[in-house]
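Appendix C: a fully annotated inverse folding record. The material below is reproduced so that readers can follow the format used throughout the book. The structure is listed first as tokens, followed by the designed sequence.
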């Protein structure tokens, strides 16, 4: 049997020294996909290691500061090294999963929705996930709280529980202040089908969101958001790296952005076809830019880019490969 392997998502662990990569494997005989989660470290001489697999499609994964593992799938399951109570549904009988004990001590399966759970966010105290209908579940110890939001969720964004964003299709944006969820109005650009594709937090607390149709919004939940004057590119991600700002654009590649607060100026760092995402990961002094591409030849991989500097150091790139087991 031949499999088409696709790296669908990349997540940083909370201790910031490893990377979680989700790989979905689709067989050519029409049977159901399977998924794996791999762990990697910031060392180009070392490859990734498998830690979890399941016979469904994993949609998101995370690991807390204390190395509690979480992932969610397209059948409403939650897989975690934590022990939960009050899961409303029974785990599907045909679900099958496994893990490596050198990475994960034990993994438990629960089911919280009949719909796909699209994204999750977690800390050592709280875990939040959102299903396809916009139902957001907060788990805090034995307490489970549900919130119903008007959006089809794509991803959580934010570092703290009391300042957390959830963005969805059709430029839907919600904010959680630690007590309640509130919908955030973005400037009307005359389109209702564009989607937020990434965000960063600036030093003054403002947030910048880029979108797949080239519009860029800046602001925060308290004062609102405005539209920045930027080139219209199909942005697929934005990140910060050592005080510099970078964006990825479909069919173009990786760019450095200057004058981030006003009229953006672009400098091409690395051309690449179909970059799907862009992330800065790692601790200060040992960071890397990770860029995913749909065109994985041979082993599935992420591209790791060192953008160089302005005093003679040139950019370079290497592959962080997935060792399929």
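Designed amino acids, in order:
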């Amino acid at each position: 049997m031949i499999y088409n392997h696709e790296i669908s998502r990349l997540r940083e662990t909370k201790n910031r020294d490893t990377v979680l990569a989700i790989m979905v494997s689709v067989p050519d005989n029409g049977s159901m996909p399977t998924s794996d989660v791999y762990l990697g470290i910031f060392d180009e001489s070392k490859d990734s290691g498998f830690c979890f697999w399941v016979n469904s499609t994993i949609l998101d994964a995370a690991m807390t500061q204390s190395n509690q593992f979480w992932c969610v799938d397209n059948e409403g399951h939650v897989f975690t090294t934590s022990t939960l109570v009050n899961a409303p549904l029974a785990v599907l009988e045909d679900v099958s999963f496994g893990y490596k004990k050198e990475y994960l001590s034990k993994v438990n399966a629960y089911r919280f929705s009949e719909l796909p759970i699209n994204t999750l966010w977690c800390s050592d105290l709280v875990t939040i996930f959102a299903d396809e209908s916009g139902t957001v579940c907060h788990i805090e110890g034995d307490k489970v709280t549900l919130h119903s939001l008007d959006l089809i969720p794509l991803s959580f964004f934010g570092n703290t529980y009391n300042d957390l964003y959830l963005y969805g299709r059709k430029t839907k944006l919600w904010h959680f202040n630690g007590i309640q969820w509130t919908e955030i109005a973005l400037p009307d650009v005359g389109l209702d089908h564009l989607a937020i594709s990434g965000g960063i937090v600036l030093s003054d607390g403002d947030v910048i969101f880029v979108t797949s149709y080239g519009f860029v919004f800046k602001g925060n939940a308290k004062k609102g958001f405005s539209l920045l004057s930027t080139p219209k590119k199909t942005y697929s991600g934005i990140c910060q790296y050592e005080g510099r700002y970078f964006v990825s654009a479909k069919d173009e590649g990786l760019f450095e952005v200057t004058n981030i607060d006003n009229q953006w100026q672009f400098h091409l760092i690395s051309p690449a076809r179909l970059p799907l995402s862009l992330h800065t990961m790692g601790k200060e002094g040992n960071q890397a830019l990770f860029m995913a591409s749909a065109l994985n030849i041979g082993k599935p991989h992420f591209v790791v880019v060192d953008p160089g500097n302005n005093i003679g150091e040139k950019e370079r790139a290497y592959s962080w490969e997935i060792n399929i087991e």
